[in-house]
């Protein structure tokens, strides 16, 4: 790729400071997110799966990419190529060549991790097969595009940045098609993975607001897909005779795309940690309020205060009384007390109907009279079940 032969109208400017700050920022944030995810998975959920290992591989791509970007900056990235020496421009091209391979791999591992997360909460055979097919397609496409990128020059791939080596290389149009193909695969998979939670979790037995929250958390891939669309539109900036300057906007969009992929893969898995933290804070505040509660004796009184029992709703109070009545009847029968011999058939049938109703209630009742939904009411389960699976 030849460099410009005429000086640019804006002179020798340098935008490397913003490039360096951005790549360091996204790398630190990505490492923090993945670290928090692993803390939640290991010490709270106590379950580590393949999705966790793949997101670690994706996260490793960030420090690798940062090293490559820093090397590019040192060789002129952020300046016009006209002001670079032949050696500087050659070294920039070499590290840019490697950074694209890192981008392909990082995006692929991130999307595979999201697919594996969805497989944790998916029960339909059709959904499972679809996600497995998507994983296979992501792996295959990444391998093919990476190989094409590596062999863009033959017989020696180093000809991509050392023009003196004999051989042939892909033209600008062919290189653009490789990058656009990867971007299109990224866009399609991002929007598919963002829509999948809506389809899979639509029957989840929780409140509408909680369901929307889960959809939002697990649908953050929409941001990644949108960034990829912008990056694709600006793809022509990558294949130009002044890539050290003109490709800067595309690089920003690509960098944030990779970062938000990590965000989309990690944020949903942090919810159990958030719930755990809220529970700890609530328990501590409850304990503090109990220790500072009212005294046992009223002022001037000789007898302890009588604390009224907590109020229960009519439905739960009637349910507790009904359970107590049935248990009392069973206890009386167990201790040898018999029913009256002249009991009429109608009352006996009523008692049997009452026992049958209790035995077949679709919910358990705890001591406090609160109702707990049975798992048989839904195929997927509660939000807690989904959190544990995530």
Report on this model:
The protein is mainly α. The chain has 13 helices and 4 strands. Helix 3 runs parallel beside helix 5. The radius of gyration is 32 Å and the shape is elongated. The model is unreliable at 312-381 (pLDDT under 50).
Topology record:
Elements: H1 16-44, H2 50-74, H3 86-121, H4 125-150, E1 153-154, E2 168-169, H5 172-200, H6 208-218, H7 221-233, H8 243-246, H9 248-266, H10 271-291, H11 314-334, H12 345-359, E3 363-365, E4 371-373, H13 383-389
Antiparallel strand pairs: 1-2, 3-4
Write a brief structural summary.
With about 400 residues, this protein is mainly α.
Strand content: under 5%
* Average of per-residue pLDDT values: 78
Runs in which pLDDT lies below 50 for 5 or more consecutive residues are: 312-381
What is the strand arrangement across the widest sheet?
Answer: 1-2
Count of DSSP helices?
Answer: 13
How would you spell out the order of helices and strands?
HHHHEEHHHHHHHHEEH
Shape: elongated
Structural class: mainly alpha
Portion in helices = 55-70%
Radius of gyration: 32 Å
Measure the end-to-end span. 47 Å
Number of strands: 4
What characterizes the major β-sheet?
2 strands, antiparallel
